[in-house]
Structures are given as C-alpha cells and as structure tokens.
Amino acid sequence: MEEQNQQPHLDIELSEDIAEGIYSNLAIITHSQSEFVIDFVKIMPGIPKARVKSRILLTPQHAKRLARALAENINKFEQLNGKIKDLDTAFPMNFGGPAAQA
C-alpha cells in the first residue's frame, strides 16, 4: 500500500543560460506589505556605478523559507569547512587592491 502523505513529484528544468549563473557580490533587499525584492548586484573595483544583474521577487512566506534554508545550508557548510569569516559589511570601492588606472 502506498503512503498517503507522499510528496508529489516535481520536474524542474534548468536551461543552459540559467545554469551558468550570474556572479553577485552585493545583495540589496527591500520589502513592502506583500513582497520582498532581492536585487543582486555586481560591483567592480574603481567603478562607482553598478548594475543590478538579477532581481528576485518573493512573498513574505517564501522569503522566510529562503532565510531558513540559507541558515540551514550555512550551518552544514560550516560543519564541513569551518566557520565562515564575517567580513566588514562596508565594502571598499577598490576591493583592497591598487587604484584603477587608465
């Protein structure tokens, strides 16, 4: 007899262009009554302007699930690899390296 509480099967497709991913070194999170907006940005050394590379919109419930899933995965990562060093939240525009020159 099959279990009644079995989760339905979900096929998730991942296209090649999405599978490549987009690098981001800054996330800006805003919210309203009905949604959370996460803008993923890539900032470059010596360039004072940055562009949003991806924007994700979530319901408050999904945002909370994402936060919980991230916390669980960070915990698993740290158990295997050691504590992640929490860097200063203020990011230098030169990334700590020499100033850009033309």
Helix/strand-derived category reads alpha+beta
Q: Helicity, in percent? A: 25-40%
Question: What general outline do the C-alpha atoms trace?
Answer: extended
Give the number of helices: 2
Q: Could you give the order of the helices and strands?
A: HEEEH
Determine Rg (CA atoms, Å).
19 Å
What kind of sheet is the major sheet? Answer: 3 strands, antiparallel
Describe the structure.
This protein is α+β, with helices and mostly antiparallel strands. The chain has a domain at 19-81. Helices cover 25% and strands 21% of the residues. It has helices spanning 16-19, 60-81, and strands at residues 26-31, 36-42, 51-58. A 3-stranded antiparallel beta sheet has the order 1-2-3. A hairpin with a 4-residue loop joins strand 1 and strand 2 (36-42).
Summarize the structure.
This protein has 102 residues and is α+β, with helices and mostly antiparallel strands. The chain is built from 2 helices and 3 strands, in the order H-E-E-E-H.
Secondary-structure topology with pairs:
Elements: H1 16-19, E1 26-31, E2 36-42, E3 51-58, H2 60-81
Antiparallel strand pairs: 1-2, 2-3
